[in-house]
Known about the structure:
Elements: H1 8-14, H2 26-32, E1 36-41, E2 46-49, H3 51-57, H4 61-64, H5 90-97, E3 101-108, E4 114-125, E5 131-140, H6 153-159, H7 169-186, E6 191-197, H8 200-206, H9 209-226, E7 232-237, E8 240-245, H10 250-265, E9 268-271, E10 274-277, E11 280-286, H11 293-309, E12 315-317
Parallel strand pairs: 11-12
Antiparallel strand pairs: 1-2, 1-5, 3-4, 4-5, 6-8, 6-11, 7-8, 9-10
Helix pairs in contact: 8-9, 9-10
Amino acid sequence: MPIVPKDSDEVIAMAGQHPARYVPSAEALLAAISEAVYVVDRQRRITYWNPAAEQLTGYQAEEVVGHRCRDGILNHVDHQGASLCTSRCPLLATIGDGQPHDMLAFLHHHDGHRVPVAARAAALADPDGNITGAVEVFHDDSRNKMLADRLNDVQRQALTDPLTGIANRRMLTQVLRQRRGDQVRYGYPYAVLFADIDHFKRINDTYNHDVGDRVLRLVSATLRGCTRSGDAVGRWGGEEFLVVATAGEADYALNLAERARHLVASTWAQNGGDRVGVTLSIGVALAGPGEATDDLVRRADMAMLAAKTNGRDRTVLA
Length: 318
């Protein structure tokens, strides 16, 4: 049902028999809540952008108000990296039919990485019931929190990569050891995804190492956002990343790898007027019964090299 804004007399009446009581404006309320909110007109031109939206997206209100939401700002994509801003935009749908629409998507953060969000769009109408625009409320839907967030400061420094903030090789080695122990004792399955950034040296040579560092950070953040809470994401070294996934079937591990690959391919690092795109080659290996972790990682590494040989920007199952 469209939301019809109430005038000040109605708001005061709703407040009871105390007209002198302070009733905050709708804008003050939207500015105070923790949910990200923005409002668009019928052309999907942004007319309001609250502080929580600034914090979640990295875009300040003055950067987006007056622009249309499809003008290369949030660039919502689904888990396969397909754009949602044209045919499957919830704002477009709710302006068309007046009904609320929900969406799970990945928005493009100002810094370049993808952020998983859950959003709901609702229509706005004038007192006569004519739809004048829509409001979208969204929040971070990350189900995967960095392992380092649960560590104390000393552990964080020892077990996280200082550039990207995700697990380092030492932490990943501990996770692999624990996963193998759980598999041997309880039969819990797991898999390793070995990801390598394609043509990373070319990025550093063409631009500079600051751009290369931004690429490493955006890939890290995107990988972290598309995995589950039981999965571990870390930097194995250089431009190599490892995901230790609680996966028992090849289909799940491959779907996870493909989701990561598509989402990374839809990100970019901004360098002046250039968008520096990036892709991943990913090798996937399911842990065999009692398989040594070194052998498992080696198989995933070899599958990743096969992906490189076969053209890059692809996933290969060991």
